[in-house]
Amino acid sequence: MTMISLGHRSRLLSSVATLILLLIAASAWAHTVTESWEGSHTVLGMYGSGTPPVIAEAVVGGPGGPIDAAQVLQLMDNSQTGATMVYVAWIVGLQNGDSVDACIWRYDTTPGTSPSCRLRAHWNDDPWDTWGYDGTAGGNDDHGAGEGWDEVCWTWTVENDHSGLVIEVRTYRYPGDTIWVDYLSVTAPDHATIRLPEHEAPVESTSWSAVKGLYR
Ligand SMILES: [Ca+2]
Ligand SMILES: [Ca+2]
Question: How far is the CA of 76 from the centre of ligand 1 (A)?
Answer without folding.
Answer: 17
